[in-house]
Queue: 2 jobs
Job 1
Amino acid sequence: MFRVQNFSIDLNELVGYVTDAEAGAIATFIGTTRNNNEGRNVIALDYEAYPEMAEKELARIGAEAAEKWQIRRMAIVHRLGPVQIGEASVIIAVSSAHREAAFAASRFAIEEIKKTVPIWKKEVFEGGEVWIGTQTGQPLPQRQRIETETENRDRDLRRRVRTRSAA
Amino acid sequence: MFRVQNFSIDLNELVGYVTDAEAGAIATFIGTTRNNNEGRNVIALDYEAYPEMAEKELARIGAEAAEKWQIRRMAIVHRLGPVQIGEASVIIAVSSAHREAAFAASRFAIEEIKKTVPIWKKEVFEGGEVWIGTQTGQPLPQRQRIETETENRDRDLRRRVRTRSAA
Amino acid sequence: MKIRVKFFAILRERAGTAEATQELSEGATVGDLWHGLQKTYPKLDVPGIRLLYAVNRNYVHLDEKLHDGDEVVFLPPVSGG
Amino acid sequence: MKIRVKFFAILRERAGTAEATQELSEGATVGDLWHGLQKTYPKLDVPGIRLLYAVNRNYVHLDEKLHDGDEVVFLPPVSGG
């Protein structure tokens, strides 16, 4: 189950999907909208995706996780549109016979999502809004760290494109 | 929320409890009954606890996690009595501003639970039943690994008792 | 040949549209398409932005040759999660 | 002095009871209590088992001195999760 959707994500649906008689462990990760970021008071996050490619990349993450670890089942659902404070923007659920694989795969998935899946987050904060990770040329309060993160993310992704072309 | 109970665990209750406007991440871990163990066909697991001390130890794990990592809220609920295949015996939920802390704390909690919390699991399998971790003197199919794990667990726990007495 | 382009996030806002169709001559690359789009949508050139490129939902390089009917997307730095 | 004992898991099954009260003389330790219980419940001695000891819900050593009304538990290797 690798999906983007415009409505709230049902944790029970994902956990039900990965539940398996051969599994002794289920790890989940829920990304939620925090009320503050880099010193700004956040009102909501607004997500946009290139939906077909985003779902393809989510499935690619699932396939890579299944190659790396002995997992049973995996589900990733990312929400689009506005996500209010405390609500989930993304949920990952993964089951495995032994807990190490479930932990490792869920951690791997969220790191990959943040680097390679074509989804964009606009932060709506008190006093403005900004596409996170996009250098707009307009100085923002305490944006220094975001720009560094963007550069890292970007470098990782470019490396992946190169590797694929070489293969 | 640190609790043992005789009825099924409600994941949504725990996630609701740790949801926090200041949190950007929630990690959960669900331990489920697997249909096989060490080559035996498992029918169910039956858990027993020293309830007052188990809840005290669960709270101690939460306090230690809060000292080690910047977490917002944590909940651990362990089920007692029979737990059927695919059902949850334990659920851990932990929220944090940034995801690293939630991942680390949930991993820490399940490792500690398995080592220090006075809860015992009887495995009911096709052809018999056994208290896991207790050397009964009766040879069981493929019990070698269980006995080694028990020895490790036991050594860790004895070390902790010594440290406490020294303090 | 006809190339379909989709815009997302800041590029959608800068272009003022989510989709466009561009007529290109045979042998044109993703880089040529981007160059041509800048003339139609001059605001697309976001200072300092680092784009990635996808043709038919696969990441490619700027020198990738295009074919009639290709779907091309210029991707701003992603920020899901 | 009167000491309350609770049995769990395999020890509960071996003792055939979940609780017991033991009368001990002043200055007796957890080890003395265990020794005394073996006489009442000879099956408590599970070959090869490694026990831990708790008095009033705190882990202690075998030489811990007991006091009237203490609640003592002998813990088989735990296996929760």
Job 2
Amino acid sequence: MAQMNMAESINLALDEAMGRDKRVIVMGEDVGYDEGVFRITKGLIAKYGDKRVIDTPLAEAGIIGTAIGMALYGLRPVAEIQFAGFEYYAYHQLEMHAGRFRNRTRGKLTVPMVMRAPSGGGIRAIEHHSESREAIYAHSPGLKVVMPSGPRNARALLHAAIQDPDPVVYYEPKALYRLFREDVPEQIETLPIGRAQVVKEGKDITLISYGATMRATLEAAEMLEEEDGVKAEVVDLLSITPLDTQTIIESTRKTGRAVVIHEGPRTCGLGAEVIARINEHVLLYLEAPIIRVTGYDVPIPYFAREMAYLPDADKVLNAARQTLSF
Amino acid sequence: MAQMNMAESINLALDEAMGRDKRVIVMGEDVGYDEGVFRITKGLIAKYGDKRVIDTPLAEAGIIGTAIGMALYGLRPVAEIQFAGFEYYAYHQLEMHAGRFRNRTRGKLTVPMVMRAPSGGGIRAIEHHSESREAIYAHSPGLKVVMPSGPRNARALLHAAIQDPDPVVYYEPKALYRLFREDVPEQIETLPIGRAQVVKEGKDITLISYGATMRATLEAAEMLEEEDGVKAEVVDLLSITPLDTQTIIESTRKTGRAVVIHEGPRTCGLGAEVIARINEHVLLYLEAPIIRVTGYDVPIPYFAREMAYLPDADKVLNAARQTLSF
Amino acid sequence: MPRKAIELPHNIEYLSILNEKGEADSALEPKLEASTLKAMYRWMLLARRVDERLLKLQRQGRIGTFPQATGHEAISLGSILTIKPTDWHVPAYRETAGFLYRGWTIETILLYWKGFEEGARPPEGVNDTPISVPVASQLLHAAGLGMANNIAGDKNVVLTYFGDGASSEGDTHEALNFASVFQAPVVFVCLNNQFAISVPVSKQMRSETVTQKAVAYGMPGIRVDGNDVLAMYVASKEAVERARAGGGPTLIEALTYRYTPHTTADDPTRYRKEEESKQWADREPLIRFAKYLEKKKVLSEAERNTMEEEIETQIKNAIQNVEELVKHPPYSDPLAMFDYLYEDIPPFLQAQRDELAKALGINTNENKDDKKKDKASAGGRN
Amino acid sequence: MPRKAIELPHNIEYLSILNEKGEADSALEPKLEASTLKAMYRWMLLARRVDERLLKLQRQGRIGTFPQATGHEAISLGSILTIKPTDWHVPAYRETAGFLYRGWTIETILLYWKGFEEGARPPEGVNDTPISVPVASQLLHAAGLGMANNIAGDKNVVLTYFGDGASSEGDTHEALNFASVFQAPVVFVCLNNQFAISVPVSKQMRSETVTQKAVAYGMPGIRVDGNDVLAMYVASKEAVERARAGGGPTLIEALTYRYTPHTTADDPTRYRKEEESKQWADREPLIRFAKYLEKKKVLSEAERNTMEEEIETQIKNAIQNVEELVKHPPYSDPLAMFDYLYEDIPPFLQAQRDELAKALGINTNENKDDKKKDKASAGGRN
Ligand SMILES: Cc1ncc(C[n+]2csc(CCOP(=O)(O)OP(=O)(O)O)c2C)c(N)n1
Ligand SMILES: Cc1ncc(C[n+]2csc(CCOP(=O)(O)OP(=O)(O)O)c2C)c(N)n1
Ligand SMILES: [Mg+2]
Ligand SMILES: [Mg+2]
């Protein structure tokens, strides 16, 4: 049991996975001698050499496309895209091939790869360094998508992603890399992909979020309890695809009210999907419209204005109060 | 007033736009001497020459990226992507630049371009030739997205798209190209981007769709009327971004029941967004969960099985009946 | 030396062995057994006849639109002969000869053009990927397979194909660059048939050859007469051997002509002249090779006729087999669309499967068994 | 000719004019006025001092992370001098000298690194695009601008920049190909500073030069000493003139060294040796040019000192101006994030704007006026 931050726990998971399984390969821009621009691949090249920790040329489609080839060969590539905002260069490879080979070849050829990418805002970065577009992958059949919210589940989800027989997009909310530490157990844990967690039980309202906005969500839940005496249930989705419909609807059925919180743009974002599933399964239990606290439908602003764009505890709190007083 | 099919009316709009405005340029793979693989650019190169009707090299990012440059220069490029399924190669240019230049430069540099692409299934094409992923563009701030459902509105929307000062994704449901003819007036029409149309009035249930699935939707509405005596109101969205929230919620408020129909995958698709907006504005008027009749969350199957994948009148009818009897 | 020309240390060549009269350059002629030569002819002939038959089936509405491979047999066969089953074959879509050689049955090919994913399932015993529709995208897989080979310390080679049009895609550049940087054992064969649908190669690029693009990657490049199966064999063999020995990738430009329309949906009279096609007619690969074999007394006209008959029967039987096959599950089962997306079907997808089953009035319990059976028989890489 | 080497009709050169001692090759030396030479030095010095000052501001937390441009002044300035205001300047992000020369104020540059979109708004009177963050993506805009010029029948030229790392992106390939196919008047300048963050150029590509990639596109390529402002000027001028005369695109490889960390967030000791940097220290562009100017008696040390003082004041004032400016609207107004996405704000976005205004307790009526004012003043292309 050691205290570590999320950057460390992801690094640990990579190290453990490479140690256990020779097929695991880490690749991407600057992941080798530089140890990653966020130091997520720290120590790996020294330990596993430059055959298994590969500094690639600067080409995202090249990274994802060759990772697909490696996975077809039988390796388990973990490909880093330096910032999620640059993944669009490679989206055609993910959509057209990573998510389709098994289906296309009726199970003969498979693509057990992971695409890791730091996502989201809040670190005063320049344009294209703060995007959060998990919904695009959620709309792309054949991919799995997960997003941790803390050091411990980050490690467990990464192990699950690497072990998964299908391609997994592993989005790292980079604002959390060094934000806080928590206990991470000695033993390797995995979390099942496709399962959300109720991280705080409550009965009055359900707050549904994942990734970086879990912090604001939990803060708002505490404020609700302290200031309003309201017991909010908080759901951490963890998996975006498959989305854990069951947990979402059970909680909402119980509370009758919900707020969905995420950083990505609102239209056709995850919030819409969560609302649609609640509507499909437990509409009659709803006592108020579900409010979305999300990024707006503009590119995340340059950093001088980005905090106003991002969901924060106040926005979540206000939305919850509005829902509660509906 | 002439009877024409959608392939002809889109061709007419291109011809008219090029005739009126020298800045309008048509470009893409095989749009010149071949006149487009669907003959949408018929006659244009003969009339306007190969400076304004450009056969490009086979490179989608190249097409969209250079179209952006042309738009910055002051032209009004209408760039064709041969099949919507290949647009992913260029998505980074659309997301990172087409949708951002105005915002980035505080209004100084703008990208008045149109990306046309035939989308959707139903023509027995091979893999990657039947995709319908308008939701991805809807989730990309700065783009507008429109989708006609017939010859007349196709022409009017294309004129609006070409005249629009901002980048517009113009998705052509290719199954409709030659499916039916309708009257198209002599005079050039435009339709306002951002406005849906109530194409059939009703009071019992709202059927919301756009593009190719409007046919199945209208058919189902007729069957409902004939077989069940149910008066369905049918909304043709026409614009995906901006989505006409007002028309959607007014109709749903009136009927209290809705079915959303589209071809693209379900998760994080347009249906989810429509449901989310209904939830936000008129939840209390809902008498039943809104059902989504959509493509499933798998790649659209090779053509032997594609009809089972696509929404059809029966599926819409069943969903409507389920909603009505809830 | 303030201003000077830069010397390019490059290795860019041209190769042809067999001329249009069927005469081989004896210094370059590969030493192949008569039985091999005969088999080569048969594979090419089979590919040709399959292609012609597909065209008829398409005209009758029995298969969908497809890209013809006629005239591209020598490129595919001459190169595929030089790799082993354990090597990787990463085709584009005009490699019918190569598919057949690698054990893809005519039935499987028919299934593909009849719109079944089952037609994209590679046969057991070879390392093949299926047809790649998005042009150039497969080249990155080839580069990655080659990189993986090096990481694993294996001695496999990857043989991959793309068109002159595909050379314009960014993926092509990235694949050639990755392969050269990592010295991946990949042989890139560019089928330069001078057209990408309607766009002639002169509008696709301003370089005189595709071959010279190898200079940009510091890799050897060779332009080969793509209608000459012997030259294709020799050039590929050299490249494959170099790759296997750790010498990295090679770019082969195989020059031919697209004798047919782009696909059955295309009308080339819109954009090219008939005369041009005629010029190329005499150069086509089968006639030339037949002449060579006749001269060499390896294959007589009578033997060729017997081959034709055998092939005709072979194709006829395959068509019959497939047309019967598709009446039954899994082919007749639309629910199969859900069964191979992930290793295990997640609940939300199972719900969609059930939804469709209900809409179609299908009892899903039956189907599940089929799936399990099919999965258990999946071998190869899985 | 069955097997032969292919001759490549190429035009690939190397150029340097000014050596490290400040001695020019008199045969190649451009004939420039003393006042021009002086101004050139001043622009480069200004860029250098701005860069150094930005570094201090970054260390003090007054701006965000930024990529330093120190050592890249000659590349940017030597080339930018050769185009007109109506020509297009399509930079990457190390063209500080060029930005300043084209009229981007120090204030605007500061706004950019302080995280305001306002810092990406090009000045009036020139055709510039702002910094392009996604590497290589701007090259396609450059190609498109050049194609548009040809369509419009104009005589403008496009000057664009990218790094050695950016050369690996597919967009670079597509841009070079489009520009060459359409003979677009584009000058592509590759800043080969030998690193892409931590990756040395030897791992970025296997070709000995970037220049030879021009062969792949049938376009002229020239490798230039990027620390030599005269060579950069001469090579660019030739390329720009050729482009303007309808001779199509050129690839210029400007060879330099990344003297600084990649950005202020980077630590190069992790991946490269200090000795290497030292070797390059003597070759840096300003010292060399100062020596040249001194030898030519164009600029004395005393004059240089005066320049330094002026520049110091200029930068100081700009910082003061900006730090005052950002306290007021539109800079202080977060709602501005909604105001330039589309020409007119659509209802759904207005609703989001109102939602945020409410959350922040802002009265939106005030703001709307600001936007209108700002819009009316927008000139240039809009
Ligand atoms: C990425 C992508 N864009 C467009 C297409 C449509 N398309 C199919 S084949 C083809 C032309 C390909 O030309 P070439 O690469 O020369 O190969 P050939 O068909 O001549 O063998 C095009 C444009 C495609 N399949 N993939
Ligand atoms: C598409 C894309 N991928 C990754 C990055 C992150 N990144 C910023 S600069 C850089 C290295 C660029 O190297 P080079 O092109 O040589 O330019 P230099 O910084 O050396 O001037 C990287 C990887 C980016 N900005 N864009
Ligand atoms: Mg071709
Ligand atoms: Mg560099």
